[in-house]
Every structure is written in structure tokens, then in C-alpha cells.
């Protein structure tokens, strides 16, 4: 399989060569082999020792072929690419991912102070779609692209959570 | 003698105050809003009283309600912490009227400290230098021009009704001053319907240096050294340290004497902080007195060995300060980082929500004052300060390296924090060399450097990241093969798209 880590230009081969025991693997990344021993694994966290160094990894989004991890405190994305993974990706509802660019999501939680765009009108990238208030500060949510406002998903005075969809922009 | 203290605050400072009370055998009373029903300060107090809804105006700022709780709980003193009612002179007077010991200065003295004009006049009388400028409002352009030429350009024209960058002009000559005067007047009239302008010298590359001081009811006063708080954003402090890298013994004693004079001049009692701007030429100018216990008090505790909350209680009990100025010795170096729930890259926008897991750092010379625990929530209703991380070292570099380690160990799941920014700052040559100024972040492009550091950090983690992906896929695949019901779930999801 091919892997690419965020901010790195390299596309790197990675594979599991052998399952040595119940929790121990011999793996190959780029051209070098490593021994990985899993200490703990559950749906949110994995702890392992890689070449005798301890790592904690948290999964933020494990439903797609684009995986978000927090590796030892650093948030990063790993992309992987293979046929099998495409199948897994589609089965897991990953088809929605294409629409991720449609949705404008709030990056902070807060109360909706004002809505500055109307359904059916055009917006430019960077235009303010709504203003949120959190911790006594007002923060603008700006359009991520040029397009048509297909739907506004929030109401003035209501609260939104982080990653809630604010608007659909086509 | 104080036997039971109501702590009219929440979060880390409520816990901090209770810690000292407990150690002295003093009972504590907590107050809490709906939002704080699961907060630690409720659990740590001897008694806890619910005082209203989440919004501060309906709970922590509700003077009548808090007074009711004081009276019904039988508390004989109140500690206001910082923020909320801590510098509200009406509330201090309300407590005085009801014979409740308010741990802080009198309402009268607080009033004087809060009134910039009157405070400045009191300082001039006590020969404490303030930022050079007009003694009060300027009459017109001619008056402004005369003062500007007396104190020397560049000067600031400030509307007393301005704020947040509005109604302020920096001008460098007579022509700019006359133009600026007109536009500041216009802006002020447009905003509030009236105009009142003062002229002040504009100081460049200033440092924010403040002094902790204490004055008892017998008129004894001491200063407990300086703190440098120059690393700020939007006039809010981020990193504080003591001693200041530019301070020497002679200057410390000389400015310290001014601080003691300032405390006498406003008839202050209890602990306070005198804030100064230090210009690039070495001159110190008094700005204001903060009439409360400061967020950054722990660095002073580290280098002085004092418990400042205990000192507050002693003074509130009418006792004289139990040491002389000459007996205070500064020992070592301390740094504090304010761990805020905010996203550095979204212009420091707040980040709130549940914190399922937190790892609190510890070790030699490491102190962490926080309200966090695994399962806590960061509320959008209150301040973004989640924790204060403080480290001490025998040398500056020891305290700095301990801080870097502690920042590394501090894991807060669920919200964005200012921790990555602090790592970039503490690793920078400019910070190591003590090149501090209130525009430090902008001057040395710290946000841009943080971005580069994060990119490098992700590159460095290529191997463990890919290893994680390999193992994750391995487990994920076997999960798919074994769980038909889950597959059905996905199918439903697909149908809904």
C-alpha cells in the first residue's frame, strides 16, 4: 500500500510483513523493517512500542482512507491508496466525503449572533456567512469557496457545536 | 480571626484559594452556577451553594445572591479571586456595610485605583512617574500641540471614550497632530456623541513589568519583586516570568521603593500589583494598580517562598506583615504559561467542549493550577484560562527547560490549546536572550514560526504515523469481515445519501 503523511511530499510504501505473535508485527516502511508491539488497542486509542520506542496514537476519524491521528500529541492526516482500501472506504459511508467540500462547517462552538448570507445568493471565498459568539468573543465563519448558497443550516440565537454544518455552498 | 471564607469565584483560582484555607484549617464555602455543577471547586469546598444560571450576570456577578449565601452560610470573610466581583468597589462596600471581611482593599481605595485620572494625580503627588502627557483633557489643537512639543514626538492622541484601537492616533509631527486631532474628535463624536482627548507620549518596544506589593492595616508596606509579563496578545498576558531579564539589584530596589510609595498614596490594604511600562531607554512609567490577587501570582510564590493567599488572610485578620523588606530574598527563576482553550490559527478563537482525558504535568519545580480533570468540560460561558503551568529553576535556563518538558507532558484531549505556541516561543533564541516586548509575537513572527514547527513535527513523525495506519487498517479490516450488522448500518447510510 502507498501512504502519504501530511506535509510530506513523499509517497511511501508500507506493509505488514509478518504477524510474529498475537500483538507483535514485523512491518516494512520505505525500505526499512521495524518491529511493532501493540500494548493496548481500542476504538479510540492505540499504544505501541516501535523499535523499542513508545507511542500513543488517538484516532480522530477512522471511517475513510484519509485517516486523522494524533501521534504523540501531534495531529496529522495519513492518506492511503489501494484497491482494497477504496472498497472499505465506500462501504463505510465514505462516499459522503465528496460532499465535504459542499459543507461549510463551524470550527468553534458558539451561539449564532447573525447570519450574513442568504439561501440562493452567490458568495465569494472569504465572505462572512455567519457570526458566532463564544467566550464573549465574536468570530466570523467565512465561506471556504466561491459558490451558491444552497442551504443555511443554522438559526440566529441557536448554539452550534464544533464541526456542525453551517451552510451548504455549491 | 477568619474562620470561614466564601470564595466568590470558580475555576482554578477558586481551587487555589481553597487550598490555602484548608491548610490553615479555615472552612470554605463554594458558590456555583448551573454550568459548574460538576466542577472541582464544588467538591473541594466544605460547603457549596448553588447561585443561579450559567451566565455570569445571573450567578458569579449577582451581588445580592452572593451576599445572601455569605449571611446564611455564616462565612465571616469573602475572597473574590480575580475577575468577576474582585475589583467591584460597590461590592466591597456592600460587604463592609454588612460587617463581612472582604479580602482585598477597601472600596474607597479600590475606587481610587480604578479611576485612571485620579490615580495618576495621586501618583504624581507621590513622585511616581507616569507616562508623560497632558495632566487631563486637552482644550484644543493648540493645547495639544504645546504638550506634544513639551514631551516630544511621537505622541498618542487618545479619546477617553475610545477603546479597542478606536479613537487613537499615533502622530510624529505638528502637521499630523492637527490632522489627527480632527479625525479622533470626529470618530469619538460619531461613536458616543462627545469628544474628550488626552495626549500621551508614545513608547516603542515597551516591556510590561509589574510589582507585587502588600500593605497591612498598620501602614507597613513591602514589595515582593517584579514580574515581567511582556508576552501578550490583544493586551492579554500569555507568559510571565520573574526575575525580569533586564532587572538588576539597584533598579529592583529603586522601582520597588516607588511601588511602596504608590501603595501608601492610594491608602491600599492587602495584596496588589503595580503595573509599569518600561521604555527601551530604561525609564519606568506607572500605568495602574490591579486591586486583586493576580493570575500570575504563583511565579512570585516560587521565588519568594511565600504563600500569597496566606499573606492576604493574615492582612485581612489585621495582622502586621510578618517580615521586613530586607528579609525578603529572591531565590531562582520562575516562568508561568497560561494554558488557554483557544485556537492559535483562528486568531485565538475560543475552543470549548468536553475534555475526556487530561494528563497534568508534575515533577521537581513544576506546579500546575487547574480546574481540569479527565471528564471535565470547558464552558463557553467563562474565561478561556484552563490551567496555569508554573516552573521554577535555580537558573533561568533550568526553569525554561522544565517548562518545555512540562508543556510536552501536558495532554488535554478535546480542545485546542495554546501549548504548541508556547513551545515555539520558549525554544526561540529571542526568548532565550530575553528580547521581550509587548509586541513580541508580531515582532518575531511567532505564529508563522509555530506553523513551520508543526509542519516539521509532522514530517518527523512519518514512521510512527504510517505504522499507526498499517495497524489501524489491519484491525479495521478484520472488524468489517466479522461484523455484518455493522455493514448493514453502512448500507443504510449509503441509501440515505
Give me a quick take on this structure.
Chain A is mostly beta strands. Chain A is built from 1 helix and 16 strands. In chain A, strands 1-2-3-4-5-6-7-8 form an 8-stranded antiparallel beta barrel. Chain A has a 4-stranded antiparallel sheet with strand order 9-16-14-11, with no helix packed on it. In chain A, strands 13-12-10-15 form a 4-stranded antiparallel sheet, with no helix packed on it.
Write structural notes for this entry.
- The complex is a heterodimer of chains A (170) and B (497).
- Chain A is mostly beta strands and 170 residues long.
- Chain A has one helix at residues 83-91; strands spanning 2-5, 12-21, 24-29, 32-41, 45-50, 53-61, 66-71, 74-81, 103-105, 110-115, 122-123, 128-134, 137-142, 147-152, 159-160, 165-169.
- Chain A is 5% helix and 56% strand.
- In chain B, strand 6 and strand 7 (166-171) form a beta hairpin.
- The longest helix of chain B is centred in the last third of the chain and has 21 residues, at 462-482.
- At the A-B interface, strand 2, strand 3, strand 4, strand 5 and strand 6 of A face strand 16, helix 16, helix 17 and helix 18 of B.
Amino acid at each position: 500500500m502507498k501512504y502519504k503523511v501530511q506535509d510530506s511530499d513523499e509517497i511511501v510504501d508500507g506493509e505488514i510483513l509478518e504477524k510474529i505473535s498475537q500483538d507483535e508485527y514485523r512491518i516494512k516502511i520505505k525500505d526499512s523493517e521495524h518491529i511493532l508491539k501493540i500494548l493496548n488497542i481500542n476504538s479510540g486509542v492505540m499504544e505501541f512500542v516501535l523499535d523499542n520506542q513508545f507511542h500513543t496514537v488517538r484516532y480522530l476519524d477512522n471511517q475513510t482512507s484519509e485517516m486523522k491521528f494524533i501521534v504523540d500529541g501531534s495531529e496529522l492526516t495519513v492518506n492511503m491508496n489501494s484497491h482494497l482500501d477504496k472498497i472499505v472506504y465506500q462501504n463505510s459511508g465514505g462516499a459522503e466525503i465528496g460532499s465535504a467540500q459542499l459543507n461549510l462547517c463551524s470550527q468553534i462552538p458558539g451561539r449564532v449572533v447573525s447570519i450574513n448570507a442568504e439561501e440562493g445568493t452567490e458568495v465569494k471565498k472569504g465572505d462572512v456567512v455567519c457570526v458566532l459568539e463564544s467566550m464573549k468573543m465574536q468570530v466570523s465563519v467565512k465561506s471556504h469557496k466561491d459558490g451558491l448558497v444552497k442551504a443555511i443550516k443554522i438559526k440566529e440565537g441557536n448554539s452550534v457545536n464544533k464541526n456542525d454544518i453551517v451552510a451548504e455552498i455549491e | 480571626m477568619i474562620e470561614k471564607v466564601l470564595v466568590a469565584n470558580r475555576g482554578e483560582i477558586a481551587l487555589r484559594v481553597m487550598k490555602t484555607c484548608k491548610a490553615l484549617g479555615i472552612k470554605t464555602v463554594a458558590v456555583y452556577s448551573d454550568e459548574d455543577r460538576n466542577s472541582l471547586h464544588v467538591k473541594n469546598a466544605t460547603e457549596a451553594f448553588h447561585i443561579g444560571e450559567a451566565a455570569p450576570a445571573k450567578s458569579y456577578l449577582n451581588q445580592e445572591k452572593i451576599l445572601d449565601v455569605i449571611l446564611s452560610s455564616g462565612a465571616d470573610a469573602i475572597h473574590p479571586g480575580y475577575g468577576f466581583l474582585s475589583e467591584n468597589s460597590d461590592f466591597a462596600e456592600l460587604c463592609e456595610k454588612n460587617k463581612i471581611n472582604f479580602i482585598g482593599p477597601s472600596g474607597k481605595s479600590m475606587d481610587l485605583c480604578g479611576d485612571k485620572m485620579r490615580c495618576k494625580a495621586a501618583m504624581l503627588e507621590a513622585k511616581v512617574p507616569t507616562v508623560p502627557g497632558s495632566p487631563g483633557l486637552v482644550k484644543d489643537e493648540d493645547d495639544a500641540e504645546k504638550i506634544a512639543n513639551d514631551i516630544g514626538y511621537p505622541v498618542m492622541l487618545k479619546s477617553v471614550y475610545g477603546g479597542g484601537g478606536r479613537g487613537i492616533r499615533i502622530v510624529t509631527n505638528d502637521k499630523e497632530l492637527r490632522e489627527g486631532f480632527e479625525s479622533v474628535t470626529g470618530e469619538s463624536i460619531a461613536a458616543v456623541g462627545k469628544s474628550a482627548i488626552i495626549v500621551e507620549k508614545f513608547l516603542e518596544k515597551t516591556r510590561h513589568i509589574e510589582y507585587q506589593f502588600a500593605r497591612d492595616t498598620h501602614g507597613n508596606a513591602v514589595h515582593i519583586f517584579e514580574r515581567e509579563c511582556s508576552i501578550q496578545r490583544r493586551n492579554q498576558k500569555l507568559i510571565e516570568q520573574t526575575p525580569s531579564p533586564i532587572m538588576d539589584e539597584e533598579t529592583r530596589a529603586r522601582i520597588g521603593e516607588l511601588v511602596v510609595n504608590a501603595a501608601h498614596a492610594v491608602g491600599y490594604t492587602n495584596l496588589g500589583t503595580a503595573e509599569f511600562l518600561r521604555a527601551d531607554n530604561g525609564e519606568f512609567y506607572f500605568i495602574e494598580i490591579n486591586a486583586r490577587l493576580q493570575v500570575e501570582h504563583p511565579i512570585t510564590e516560587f521565588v519568594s517562598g511565600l504563600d500569597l493567599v496566606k499573606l492576604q488572610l493574615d492582612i485581612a485578620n489585621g495582622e502586621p506583615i510578618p517580615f521586613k523588606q530586607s528579609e525578603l530574598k529572591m531565590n531562582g527563576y520562575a516562568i508561568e504559561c497560561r494554558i488557554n482553550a483557544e485556537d492559535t490559527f483562528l486568531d485565538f478563537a475560543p475552543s470549548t467542549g468536553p475534555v475526556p482525558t487530561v494528563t497534568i504535568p508534575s515533577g521537581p519545580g513544576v506546579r500546575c493550577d487547574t480546574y481540569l480533570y479527565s471528564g471535565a468540560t470547558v464552558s463557553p460561558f467563562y474565561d478561556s484560562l484552563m490551567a496555569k503551568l508554573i516552573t521554577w529553576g535555580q537558573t533561568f535556563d533550568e526553569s525554561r527547560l522544565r517548562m518545555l518538558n512540562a508543556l510536552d507532558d501536558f495532554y488535554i484531549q478535546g480542545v485546542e490549546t495554546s501549548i504548541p505556541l508556547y513551545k515555539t516561543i520558549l525554544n526561540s533564541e529571542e526568548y532565550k536572550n530575553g528580547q521581550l516586548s509587548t509586541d513580541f509575537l508580531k515582532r518575531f513572527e511567532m505564529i508563522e514560526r509555530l506553523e513551520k514547527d508543526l509542519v516539521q513535527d509532522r514530517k518527523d513523525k512519518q514512521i510512527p504515523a504510517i505504522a499507526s495506519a498499517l495497524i489501524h487498517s489491519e484491525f479495521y479490516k478484520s472488524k468489517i469481515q466479522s461484523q455484518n450488522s455493522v455493514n448493514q448500518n453502512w448500507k443504510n447510510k449509503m441509501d440515505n445519501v
